[in-house]
From TrEMBL:
Cited PANTHER family: ANCIENT UBIQUITOUS PROTEIN, GLYCEROL-3-PHOSPHATE ACYLTRANSFERASE 2-RELATED
Domain Phospholipid/glycerol acyltransferase, first and last residues per copy: 247-348
Repeat listed as a keyword: no
TM segment ranges: 176-196
Main location, first listed in the record: membrane
Full protein name: Phospholipid/glycerol acyltransferase
Gene Ontology BP annotations: cutin biosynthetic process
Length: 439
């Protein structure tokens, strides 16, 4: 009955074609709940068949992609005019998996005498059709599972790089109760934090925000790149005929608040270039934001103009990444300036993620500010030469600069560099290429 209520609440009215939670959100929580001892036994098997009383659509992507299960047999959900109605098919009608294979065909007569091992945690494992084909059956009790260790991240068969959803905590009963009790207070706290950040000068806002639970940990190189901002201003004023460009800050992307935190750390407003910032975020942003068009020529001209007016911040990943990985850097920034300052950023949250791929992006800053004590760690690295290196006739030089900056940021953060892109993220999590209509 509990399972039926959960399925009704979770699935009623959800459009079948748009359901992606099983691939985008749930794998994170499922992986955090995998027992290491059971996982080791599973990996020693040959062909693997997963059987569950859960709706197949909830667990199939996780079992196939992260636990290397070959065939998933679960309960099917009833659909009416393309929408789930929150009811499951009966067990007796659920002998077929997604490929239309019957369990009798999966374990045919030719395999009955071989080493087929069944591992289950059902009260009566022999009642299930699958176990009638097994030579050996092992029953795992709840007490046994409680003694298991959680699967370490470095043992994942496939690294968890992308996932969606707002919750950081696993939604256990106690965690869920704590979240529901915190949300009403958190909403008003987030509004107060936002008003302070928007209305007060940087130095005063930092003190008040620290009192409200927000923190920023900043580290700089021995020869600080930040101090050169003042030198640039002095040079421009002392020699107006030789107009120098501003500094180009290149950061990895953790949340939409990255440019704001950098401005707060430098105590000066910095222009930020973005791809798909919501209109509401643009209006409320205390710093200047400029949208890029994804047209390389137009974007290059726009960034040249902005750098001639002052310092600029760009996140060449093009989208946020929650896990300790860096996505591939777009090389456009390498051609814009010789004054490139890499900045390694990491955001730490305890209840809510301030990013989303399938939800309302205008709410991202609100969810980040709703955390009890959100904080950033920021490392300003030494300058990297860019534009002059890329104009020596070598077309590949801009890619070398971009890869070098990515490597330096990854080393500073302890993150792994990947070749995945913004497009890869949105195809996995949202089923589109991440292009926002009207932007």
């Amino acid at each position: 009955m509990g399972l039926q209520i959960m399925v009704m609440v979770c699935f009623f009215g959800i459009r079948k074609d748009s359901f992606r939670v099983g691939r985008a959100v749930l794998p994170k929580f499922f992986l955090e709940d995998v027992g290491f001892e059971g996982f080791e036994v599973l990996m020693r098997g040959g062909r693997k068949v997963g059987v569950t009383d859960f709706p197949r659509v909830m667990v199939e992507s996780f079992l196939r992609e992260y636990l290397e299960i070959d065939v998933v047999v679960g309960r099917e959900l009833k659909v009416f005019k393309g929408y789930y109605i929150g009811l499951m098919e009966d067990h007796n009608n659920n002998k077929k998996n997604k490929s239309g294979l019957v369990l009798d065909e999966i374990f045919g007569e030719g395999i009955l005498g071989s080493d087929v091992v069944g591992i289950g945690s059902f009260n009566k494992p022999l009642d299930h059709h699958l176990f009638s084909h097994c030579k050996e059956i092992y029953f795992v009790s709840e007490a046994d599972k409680r003694s298991w260790h959680y699967l370490p991240r470095d043992k994942y068969p496939k690294p968890l790089i992308f996932h969606d959803g707002r919750l950081v905590l696993r939604p256990t009963p106690l965690n869920s109760l704590a979240i529901f009790m915190w949300v009403p207070f958190a909403f008003f706290l987030a509004i107060i934090r936002a008003l302070v950040a928007i209305s007060l000068p940087y130095r005063f806002a930092g003190v008040v925000l620290a009192f409200l639970g927000m923190r920023l940990n900043l580290s700089r190189p021995t020869t600080s790149s930040i101090s050169s901002t003042t030198n640039h201003s002095n040079n421009r004023s002392s020699n107006p005929k030789k107009k120098k460009k501003g500094l180009l800050y290149v950061c990895n992307h953790r949340t939409l608040l990255d440019p704001l935190y950098l401005s707060a750390a430098l105590c000066t407003p910095i222009t930020a270039v973005t791809y798909s910032l919501s209109r509401l975020s643009e209006v409320l942003a205390p710093i200047k934001t400029v949208r890029l068009t994804r047209d390389r020529v137009k974007d290059a001209k726009m960034m040249e103009k902005l750098l001639s007016q002052g310092d600029l911040i760009v996140c060449p990943e093009g989208t946020t990444c929650r896990e300790p990985y860096l996505l591939r850097f777009s090389p456009l920034f390498a051609e814009m300036s010789d004054e490139i300052v890499p900045v390694a950023m990491d955001a730490h949250v305890s209840m809510f993620y301030g990013t989303t791929a399938g939800g309302l992006k205008c709410l991202d800053p609100l969810f980040f500010l709703m955390n009890p004590s959100p904080y950033y760690t920021m490392k300003v690295l030494d300058k990297v030469p860019g534009a002059s290196t890329c104009r020596d006739g070598d077309e590949s030089s801009r890619f070398k600069v971009a890869n070098h900056v990515q490597h330096e940021l990854g080393k500073a953060l302890g993150f792994e560099c990947t070749k995945l892109t913004r497009k890869d993220k949105y195809l996995i999590l949202a089923g589109n290429e991440g292009i926002v209509k009207g932007h």
